[in-house]
Amino acid sequence: MGHVTVRILETGATVVALEIDDRFLPILSSIQKSFSNFRYLIQNACTVSWDELWRADTYSVFGNIPYYITGPILERLLLKEKRWVRAVFLLQEEVANRLVSKPGNKSYSSLTLVTQYKARVSLGQKVPRGSFFPIPKVDSAFVHLERKEKTNFHGQEEAFFLDLVRGAFRERRKTLANNLLPMFPQLSKIELFQVINGAGIDPGRRSETLTLEEFSSLAKSLMGVLS
User: Fold this and answer.
1) Which pTM value belongs to this model?
2) Which of 42, 85, 107, 153 is positioned for an S-S bond with 158, CB 3.0–4.6 A?
3) pLDDT in tens, 116-128
């Protein structure tokens, strides 16, 4: 953490660091003494509001994210914070590949779709496990995210879309239609098939084959029937 933070500070950028482990206090205090454009908080990055911490209109995010909090961190970035414009995360390579995955790949998931719905995502440099001490069991990779200024849905419609995506991947071995049936008990199987077909999608396809655009089309069709 310290080396990367210092490199960013040397560019003149203002940095607010969040750290939950107070064992890093000596490093953070040392950096603060050397740079007036640095402040740190001993806070849980998964629960504190980043928007409230940052004093400017927009901000960028950088982090070396432990595997066990990758999901909560991405959820906060993508679904709760509103003023970030770009983010660079160092993640386990497997997770990084999942975020940039394409339809039809085993790594394609609801996390892929939610991330790509909210941001333009690209894979950065791979970091071999030997670059760390102690040496972890897996390699890592950088992921670059740029926030999309506009998305297809807002408010309750967006909540519906996100629930639809998550539900569609509930059981990967099932078809799209069979995953969605329990989500919409007000629709008969025939009615649900008609809605899916009306969106230009074969109900027998598996969710991991659908593009973001197809999920958007399906959401609009379902909202039209259910409203």
Assistant:
1) 0.91
2) 153
3) 999 999 999 999 9
